[in-house]
Amino acid sequence: MNVLIVESNPDLGQIWKNHVERMGAQRVTLVAGLDPAIHEIMRHSWDVIVLNLVLEDGGAMAVSDYASYRQPDANLLLVNSSSFFSDGSIFNHLGNVRACLPTSARPEDLAAMVAHYAQPDV
User: Fold this and answer.
1) Alpha-carbon span 16 to 122, nearest angstrom
2) pLDDT digits (tens, 9 = 90+) for 65-108
3) 70 CA to centre of own chain
4) Which listed site, 22, 36, 81, 107, has its alpha carbon 20 to 30 Å from 8?
5) What's the burial of 23, exposed, middle or buried (CB within 10 Å: 0-12/13-18/19+)?
6) Distances in Å between the alpha carbon of 61 and those of 66, 81, 95, 97, 98?
7) What domains does the chain contain, in order, with CATH numbers?
């Protein structure tokens, strides 16, 4: 399983990365924003992309759109620290979103979701 994590907070991103690696991922790459995320999506194939909806550079929607175009089979897991989209409407706006978790979710729960959505035919 190949996982791209797009998270502005390097400490939080590293915690998520460590937990996903423990789940057996072959490649887990952590980037901080729009430009490095686009670069990684162009260079590699991803099974799952973990994307914080509230990136410091504001590029989360662009990352999602580009991933949908460039890698339509990649499953997108959103994490969100705000109450915006808490009604589930994000699924109407971004077709490649499979789940939306709060940023405060336990890292092992996020890693389990990544492992689940990295499976073929999910």
Assistant:
1) 21
2) 899 899 999 999 988 876 555 555 554 555 677 787 888 899 99
3) 15
4) 22
5) middle
6) 9, 15, 11, 11, 15
7) 2-117 (3.40.50.2300)
- DSSP codes, 13-72: HHHHHHHHHHTT-SEEEEE-SHHHHHHHHHHS--SEEEEESS-TTS-HHHHHHHHHHH-T
22: closest CA among 118, 115, 117, 116? 115
| Residue that is written with structure tokens 């991103």 in the block | 13
Segment holding 114, helix H or strand E: helix 107-117
Structure tokens at 98: 């499979």
pLDDT the model gives residue 55: 78
Residue 33 contacts residue 9 (beta carbons within 8 Å): no
What distance in Å separates the CA atoms of residue 66 and residue 64, rounded to the nearest whole number?
6
